[in-house]
Amino acid sequence: MTAPGEAAQRKAQQAQDHPVLDRLARVGMVTYGVVYLLVGWLAAQLALGDPSGSASGAGALQEIAEKPLGSLALWLVALGMAALAVWQACEAVGGHGDEDGLRRWAGRAGSAGRTVVFAGLAVLAVRTALGDGGSSGSGGGGGQGVTAKVLDLPFGPATVLLAAAVVLGVAATSAFRGLSDRWEKDVEVEGRTGDVGRVVTILARAGYVSRGVAFGVIAFLLARAALEHDPDESGGLDQAIMKFRDEPLGPWLIAVVAVGLACFGAYHLFRAWYLRSR
Fold first, then answer.
1. How far apart are CA 85 and CA 65, in angstroms?
2. C-alpha 26: how far from chain center
3. Spatial distance between the Cα atoms of 149 and 3, rounded to a whole number of angstroms
4. Cα angle vertex 169, ends 165, 175, to 5°?
5. pTM (2 d.p.)
6. I need a surface site. Which of 35, 75, 97, 137 has the fewest CB within 10 A?
7. Which is higher by pLDDT, 22 or 80?
8. Which residues, in sequence order, are bridge partners of residue 275?
């Protein structure tokens, strides 16, 4: 008799392998890549002192909304992100079968975390398409407002410090994934060999490491806000860029990170084509 857990894993694997979900997940990878390409471009604009929007997922979606057929594109983004959320949820339940013990559970936990991220982007895309995206923090003050409210709660600083630790974990995981080439398990062999493989390798390494640096700076700002009980010290990538832009070599370093984030987006365009489900 099959145990309930094994039955759930088998059903999750079957759902993940379904052609419809596979195609929609690839669409999601493309839209996710486009979002990060826009985040990189917006970050570069901020580094140059000529901001045209917020260097965030919300800012990228707002950029899409302002283009011709932007509303239709946002609904496509929402569909793709929702499909990726389902796909990662299946991965969290029945994936990572090639790993054992702690690594398997860590992989499934990572997939569960990505499920939340993609679901959040899907909701944000819907809200932006409906004209309600601005309140989600497309500007610089959204993150600070949330941090201020949390800091005023009992154990608020400890909660923000815990959030900083979580973001730091995401940063470390992203950088490790790029430096160790663990990203290769997500790509079919055709995308890891030959001339295409060389291009994908450069994009993946630069992208994951740059994303790790960006999240690491955000974690630092959150930790400082918690320790100093000052929400103005927190924020997203926008605040990080503004704080470090006037430092020596600051604009150049930010530009490098911006290019890296764009590489992360470009990598996902390749990954959509060479997607390896398990």
1. 22
2. 16
3. 45
4. 140
5. 0.80
6. 97
7. 80
8. 187
Residue type, 228: E
Amino acid present at 100: D
Rounding to the nearest 10 degrees, give the CA dihedral for residues 76, 267, 84, 66.
-30
Residue-wise pLDDT tens digits, 78-122:
999 999 999 888 888 876 666 777 777 777 788 888 898 899 889
Sign of the torsion angle spanned by Cα atoms 155, 157, 162, 166:
positive
The rounded distance, in Å, linking the Cα atoms of 55 and 239 is 9
How many CB atoms sit inside 10 A of residue 128's CB?
26
Yes or no: say if 236 and 227 are a contact pair by the CB < 8 Å rule.
no
**pLDDT exceeds 80 at position 47:** no
* Tally of CB atoms within 10 A around 136: 18
The two structure tokens encoding residue 48: 């140059």
Closest CA to 37 of 266, 278, 272, 276: 266
